[in-house]
Amino acid sequence: MKLQKPSGRILIAGAGGGIGTALCQHLRTCGMETVALRRDRNDRYALQEATAKNSLVCCAGIAHRKASIEAYQRSNIATPLCLARQASRVGVKRLIFLSSIKAVGISAEQAGLETPPRRIDPYSWSKRRAELLLEQHCRANGLELVVLRPALVCSPQVRGNLRLLLQGLTWGLPLPLLPRQAPKPLIGIDNLVSAIHYCLICDSRLIQESPFILYDEPPLSLAQLYEELSRQLRRRPQVLPLPDGLATWLTHLPAGLIQGLSPLLQQPPPPRIAPPGWQPPLGLAQGLERMVEGFRQTG
Ligand SMILES: NC(=O)c1ccc[n+]([C@@H]2O[C@H](COP(=O)([O-])OP(=O)(O)OC[C@H]3O[C@@H](n4cnc5c(N)ncnc54)[C@H](OP(=O)(O)O)[C@@H]3O)[C@@H](O)[C@H]2O)c1
């Protein structure tokens, strides 16, 4: 494994977010110098005193709330592209872009459209479109691009559907479950920041297979996840079985509704593609334990 400690600073956009905060903490603990970039009113970041020695990580964007297509275009597409343009101007060597596992399966043709096709949810489209535009820009300008497509992140600052699941469990609410539930991929925050760290320091040849699809093995079905979380919270799991035909019916709903109901509509996860030579430091169970511990403290 060829690793080199970057001689310069790591510039981080979205450093105040869940992943950005954990990444900054981790890199500083490892003795690396990080710079949290600031954004203006238009969500544009300025590369402060960037030099060719710096590397850039883009963790910025709208991730946990529904937004308009215009907001996704501004924050999830224009923002990383603007960062890449500034980075190539000063000669930054490597850009790591936090995309999402949800970008998988969206074709270059669909991502090439100015607005998302009807049956694709705008968040997933915005991530795939950003990937496409970044690839074009970076290829033309000699900037190394690493695209990371993480699954849902579990961290002690748990939010969104995972928090709802934990809250439902502690309140004793039954979980609606379809009979055949595909596994739901998750990645622990420690493993994700470790992968980002690795992609910052590994040899250029090792990032050739980007985009990397990151999740912890084995992905659990919602029922298994619910059972595991119940065990950790010492609660008895309660499920409400739903009829099988409901899944087929749900797939005919508009994209917005499908996004809201996504916990019920799991597709099998795409194969994991990890950076060659990188090993996740923790197992899935340890990542879930860290999440449950954080939930207990704040919940
Ligand atoms: N968390 C997950 O489960 C997950 C899974 C897959 C992919 N991702 C991707 O990973 C990235 C980081 O996720 P995260 O969980 O750290 O998200 P987060 O906690 O919401 O943080 C996102 C950060 O982006 C910046 N930002 C820029 N424009 C924004 C806007 N218009 N609205 C809100 N924030 C804006 C903010 O940073 P500053 O205020 O510091 O500038 C914010 O703290 C996102 O791009 C997300 O799509 C996340």
From TrEMBL:
Residues 10-161 form the NAD-dependent epimerase/dehydratase domain. Transmembrane segments: none annotated. It holds the Pfam family Epimerase. PANTHER family: BIFUNCTIONAL POLYMYXIN RESISTANCE PROTEIN ARNA, BLL5923 PROTEIN. This is UDP-glucose 4-epimerase. It comes from Desulfuromonas thiophila.
